[in-house]
Every structure is written in structure tokens, then in C-alpha cells.
Amino acid sequence: MEVIRGVINLKARHRGAVATVGNFDGVHCGHQAILSQIRDHAKKLGVQSMLICFEPQPKEYFDAFNAPARLTRFREKVELLEAAGIDLVLCFKFDEKTRTMSSEQFVNILVDEIQVKALYVGDDFQFGNDRGGGFAELQRAGEVHGFEVTNLYTLTFESMRVSSTRIRQCLAAGHFEEAEKMLGHAYSIFGKIVYGRQLGRTIGAATANIQLHRYRAPIDGVYAVEIEGLDKTYQGVANVGLRPTLKEQTVRPILEVHLFDFNRDIYGKSVTVVFRKKIRDEKKFSGLDELKAAIHDDMTSARDYFSSRRMQ
């Protein structure tokens, strides 16, 4: 799969694809059903399949602190799209120039630059400056320029709409099994282990820190987790949050993971943290002694969870 950064980097081999437009955050089961249609249509026409997206996502550009928390970073999303069989990702930088693009300019890009063969969007899709363009305008453009425009119908799960918003709600409530059914895989966070304050070593719970590089995370609190990407899968306990007990409380959330029965230097390693069960919300404690006691209770709870799962 190829990732193309902006129209300026489009080559002749990229043109003439069957495309869709959207964030596709999480690449959940609804997204996967859409991508399957696009992939099949592209194969039928003998062309490539393409996702058109924007970075940062538009809501993040307008208000990074209050934009919906991402289910996947861009790199994770690309990997999931590749696994879904998509050939091309055309990523526009969302900036002032993109924000002020008219709906006519966007249609011209589809026709002249991408030379789209077919386009899949929802009937509520809006585009262009002040969201001036919609599904009907794309249909008219398709009739004039000879490309199909197909309405994407929403996939439902247990009579409810499958959406990134609903998955975020499930994750926030600790309903990981329900979220996994909609995602098509267990919820996880991928990242590189970085140096932290190493405070955990002083209270008997050394942690591996992973910077999330975002203002919000879809979860916060303490969790029983599995860690993949090392010599084997390890179990542990993780905290996602702002570390309110510490004087140096962070602005961006941090993922801290304590691996059970593990004592090796893994700084710089990239790992996947798979979230299995929520233990508690993040809490501000009166001091380090109370924090230390809570952490050891969390470790016990996580071990008990994994022990009970093995017995099932």
C-alpha cells in the first residue's frame, strides 16, 4: 500500500481509483464493510482502491483539546487499512488552505487530479468551505464527468449504529468486549517506550512510559493489559491519564505500563498494549504512600483477573 501526502505527490499510477472519503478512525467493522465494497468494485474495474483523508482531522484543527479522542493514530490506521486490502491512502494536510477550499475546487481535484472512477460517500457527507457541498452535488458531478457516486449505508450492531463515537463510549465505560465486536479486534495502543521520571522504581512498580502524542485519549484510568511486541506476550497493569497525584501533572495523557514478572531494559522498543479490563478510574491521592498502596491493589486486581480468565 502507498501513502500519498497531498495532491502534489500524485503520480500517473495513482490516478483512476475507486475512492471513499473520511476519517475512518479505528477502521471498525462498519469501515471494513465499506472498504470491502470499494475493494471489490476496484477489482471489477481493474483499478486501485483509495481512501482520501485529512491530517490533522478537521475537528482537531479547529479545537485540538476538545476534538473527539482518536481510536487510532495515523500509523495504526494505515496498518489497518493495509490489512483491509486498500491500495492507496491520499492524505491532505488540513490547514487554512484546505479549510477555505470551495466545494467546486474539491470536485475539480476529484475529477482532474485523482480522476476518480467511482466514489463512495454517505448521503450526509459534506465538503468544501463551510461544508457547502453535499451528496447531491457529487452526484451531479458524477453524471457530468462519468464517475459513479454510491451512498454508503450504515452498518448496525445489535440494532445500533456502528460508529467511532459509540466505540469511544464503550471504551470509556470499560465495555471492552462490546468495543471489540465493533472494532473487529481488541482495543490496543501502539507506541514507543520512552524515558520517564522512573518514580515507579522507588515505589516497587517500575513502569514503561508511552507518549500518546494527543491531547485526549478514548480511555483513562487503570487497566489489566497484555503487552505484545517483545519476546512473548506479557501481562500487566496500565494507567492512562494525567498523573494528578504528582506535582508535574501532564497536559497530554501518558500511558504507563507495569509488566508482571519482567525486569529488562526496553527503552526505545515499540510495543502494542492490549486493554482487557478496567480496574478503576484515575484518582488523585493524598501522597506517594497512598498512591503506592493503590498501585499494589491494582496489580493484585489485574493478576486476579488474568488468573480467573485462565480458569474459564
Describe this structure in words.
This protein has 312 residues and is an alpha/beta fold. It has helices spanning 29-45, 58-62, 74-83, 96-99, 103-114, 135-145, 164-172, 176-183, 288-311; strands spanning 2-5, 18-21, 49-55, 88-93, 118-121, 148-151, 156-157, 160-161, 188-194, 208-211, 221-228, 234-241, 254-259, 270-280. It folds into 2 domains: 2-160, 3-Layer(aba) Sandwich (Rossmann fold); 187-311, Elongation Factor Tu (Ef-tu), domain 3, CATH 2.40.30. The protein is 32% helix and 25% strand. The protein has a 6-stranded parallel sheet with strand order 1-4-3-2-5-6, sandwiched between helices. α7 (164-172) runs antiparallel to α8. The chain is elongated and about 70 Å long. 31% of the residues are buried.
